[in-house]
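ligand=shikimate-3-phosphate
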Amino acid sequence: MINLIKNAQSHQLIIENKASSLRGKISIPGDKSISHRALMLGAIASGETTIEGLLLGEDPRSTAHCFQEMGAKVSELNTEKVIVTGIGENGLQEPLNVLDAGNSGTTMRLMLGLLASQPNKFFTVTGDDSLRSRPMSRVIQPLQQMGAIIYGRNSNKNAPLAVIGQNLKAIHYHSPIPSAQVKSCILLAGLMTEGKTTVTEPALSRDHSERMLRSFGATLEIDPDTHSVTIEGGTKLQGQTVIVPGDISSAAFWLVAGAITPNSDLMIENVGINPTRTGILEALIMMEADITILNEREAAGEPVADLRVKSSKLKACTIEGAIIPRLIDEIPILAVAACFAEGTTIVKDAEELRVKESDRLAVMATELNKMGANITELSDGLEIRGGNNLKGATMDSYTDHRIAMSLAIAGLNADGKTTINRAEAASISYPTFVDTLTIISQF
Ligand code: S3P
């Protein structure tokens, strides 16, 4: 039995007992990263952009709202068809109020590249408690190298931020971390700046910005060997039709749920399988999960497939190095999978998880250990000894969407009652998560 108790301020998700099986077809919501980018590029392009399959989660809503405040027109948000009427690269208007990025790091970091490069316009940007504590210096510093004027709390490290737009200068930025948000911020600033702006990253991060910028008419050179992307400034973007595939980061919950729950067989339809995002598939297949990739196809420049997963006997694995940015958001749910695998799973090189919506290394270790898991937190990862039966417990999402959903999948496979407080966080990226959980679960 699954119950969602809705209080005015927060929701409690209660899973009364272990599921006996998971079955059915699942259609997952649109990709969060692609949804943000479609709204942003649509807003700064000329003409209309049609977005099909937009994620209706809180994060893309924050992006839509910020760009509406700056003059872009966005039709009513729905999954069928959202029309963004762009205002052109230099058309962003000074907003009358503070721009609120809510919980969304992608909104704040990508948007900063665009704001910093609007000469003589003034913007203030903030977010919720979690976002105001997350590091913004990773985008502020390279933007300052381009000549940006940005002020923020804690010596320019945290929001609220104030931006006075400038004519920026092109740079070659060597990012110390593989981060699509940093890369995309600089590319968007570079789009508005005369000359060629290059970003080099130590490992390849998701490339949705590059793909979508090209399809909107920008000129990019990509060097896959050095993980470098160069954008030519000054190109005019033209509105496009964007078909948003299902989010593999959301599919990941069902991939793990299907693998660890007995007697399960799930078909997850229309999942984006961009190679910069498929680390989770590779990791689960390495763990011997029974996953089949079906009907591979392309939708508006992004590869898509259906994924079938069946109950599996998982084996531990080690995840480190270049695969980390390709599964960065899936490490919490992978930690759940590892609890059900034979042997010790090691996750390394994942210190970035400490500055996500919550400190995901600390939170996953603490909360899963409350259920009887055997997890040791490492400075840059987790050591997860599998094979302990999990018991239901009362846990907290820390208002982090991926934590709420990962703990729910653990609860589905725990003896006794699991309670997840502040479960409404799931709606950041997956507003229909509990509905799907309820439909596919048998007890
Ligand atoms: C995202 C990039 C990643 C990811 C986030 C979405 C994006 O963040 O964790 O959920 O859309 O560019 P980083 O760039 O900080 O790694």
